[in-house]
Fold this sequence. Notes:
Elements lengths: L1 E5 L4 H12 L3 E6 L18 E4 L5 H7 L5 E4 L13 H22 L3 E7 L7 E4 L3 E3 L6 H5 L15 E5 L10 H20 L2 E7 L1 E3 L12 H10 L5 E2 L6 E2 L1 E3 H14 L8 E6 L5 E2 H12 L5 E2 L12 E2 L2 H7 L7 H8 L15
Parallel strand pairs: 1-2, 1-4, 2-3, 4-5, 5-9, 8-17, 9-14, 10-13, 11-16
Antiparallel strand pairs: 6-7, 6-8, 12-15
Amino acid sequence: MRVLVTGGAGFIGSHIVATLAARGHEPVVLDALLPCAHAVPPTPPPGAAGWFPADVRDTTTVSRALRGIDAVCHQAAMVGLGTGFPDAPDYVDCNSLGTARLLTAMARSGVRDLVLAGSMVVYGEGRYDCPRHGRVTPGPRSAADLAAGRFEPRCPECGADLLPGLVGEDARTDPRNVYAATKLAQEHLAAAWARETGGRAVALRYHNVYGPGMPRDTPYAGVASFFRSSLDRGEAPRVYEDGGQRRDFVHVEDVAAANALALEAMSEHPATTFRAYNTGSGTPHTIAELATALAGAHGGPAPEITGEYRLGDVRHITADSSRLRAELGWRPRVGFADGVAAFARAPQRARPAAPAAR
């Protein structure tokens, strides 16, 4: 299978390219190679069967790249929470408009299979249960509560403490920042494209992906990269709130394998128009646990619990990835302890100059 991987020179994309090549496929890379994403201009990643240094919004080049392509693995996006709402036009332009232009080119080229890099951020807060009222959906946490150190969401009916659980793909979506809104928009666009063209689309809703090759020293990277960058500078990782936020940390090699399996399975499910899959390890850990494990493996200073917060952050979001396991046979191979220990010493990408668009 010949697969166009947009953002194929980026952190996750380059691992997908290597995995596809190892499984006997022909990955073709399309990547804007912007200095804000690549401090050092990259060469084609190992295994790349084609190389197009272009943006997904460049319809002419995308159309050329799609010649002879069987499926598209769409990783290109502006990632992370950014630095504030002024980033909104860039997120919408890159993520929403970029995806629309890619899908338009696919429709014209007759390419009908798509795997999309989705995100768990589309859910907002995760699943919560109240001892009295059962399953509830708490609203965004107030600035007053956060400033007072009241970080846990409370039952909207009685104000009681809630029990966090695993969120499934059928949960209500509730994006709570600009990045999340654009990731959900990508899914809606992919679903509309699939219905109108007879195509098939899969969205892999990534949880907290980490591993070798993460960019360092950028507000657009994940929390694992923040902590690792601090340790490399000899500084203590700074943990927001009280560190009790629950996340699902999944290794980039496992995410790459999920993409390959999704691409390979599409021809076996011809009735599928759009299907979402949570892509997480299935084993929640707190942010403080991650920081502590990284610091210990790195040999750096212990984490500092700061009590700081960001409006728009969610408290707990962890995945039920059983659908991905049952339908595609995916199993995560890299455990938390081994993965974090290796990441503590793994190479990182040089610091980008500005917002990271892949």
